[in-house]
Please model this.
Amino acid sequence: MPDLIVHGIEGEIVEALGARAKANGRSAEAELREILAAVLKAPRSKNFAAMLAAMPEVGRDEDFARVQSSKVAPGVFD
Model:
């Protein structure tokens, strides 16, 4: 299995990794492997355009039409 070396990690991050590893009963190295696997093997989320395209067709365009009124609700511009 290949090795990975990462330089220049902030001390605060290293401490947080150590604390998380300890809480999970793992070494910092094992915890980092778990984090990387969880993030990189997780299914990618859809982008906004894909989510919009996946929305079902509901209603008619008229249902979503903006109603223009010349009357202002009481208290709006008081």
Summary: Helices lie at 11-23, 28-41, 48-54. The two ends are 70 Å apart (CA to CA). The chain has a mean pLDDT of 87. Residues 1-78 form one domain.
